[in-house]
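Journal club prep — side note

Before the paper discussion, L.F. wants everyone to see what a predicted structure for a comparable chain looks like in token form. Sequence:
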Amino acid sequence: MVGFDDLSREDLMKVIQVYAKNLLAHDGCWFLAAEEKLGIDGAIKLDEEAWNRFAVVEAKRIMKEFNISPGSGLKGLERTLALRLYAAINKQTIEWVDEQTIIFRMVECRVQKTRMEKDLPAFPCKSVGMVEFSQFARTIDDRIKTECVNCPPDPVHSSFCQWRFSIDGE
């Protein structure tokens, strides 16, 4: 039996892509099931609660495995955002505005892109994103403040969503 230790780098990268897509598909299936039972508002509320928990778990695991120290500021956040599973399937960028501020952009979002291809309206993920990104950032460094620049249901411009992360005195 061939195991992960036997895979080439190229095949390991394929596995990461498959796992990232599977996670996203599971998240979508879960959300649709919740929406069928509770309606869109109830499903979004549950999604916020789930991301409130998951963002912390995800950040802590990445930090542990890649020796990113708690309190590592925006540099730690930049590194950790790049190692999220979603980074494997969504095109994202980070712009340093100054030493205390970065702008994270989701240039290509697989969820929103799929909805556009199906002629569906953008998924209104702003409230979920606010929970997700603020919890994720606070887990890296509790001094980091998160602000949504834009996110659906806001109009999509050059990126699907943008988040400003800032920290005083770094």
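L.F.'s comment for the group: The two ends are 50 Å apart (CA to CA). Keep this in mind when we get to the figures.
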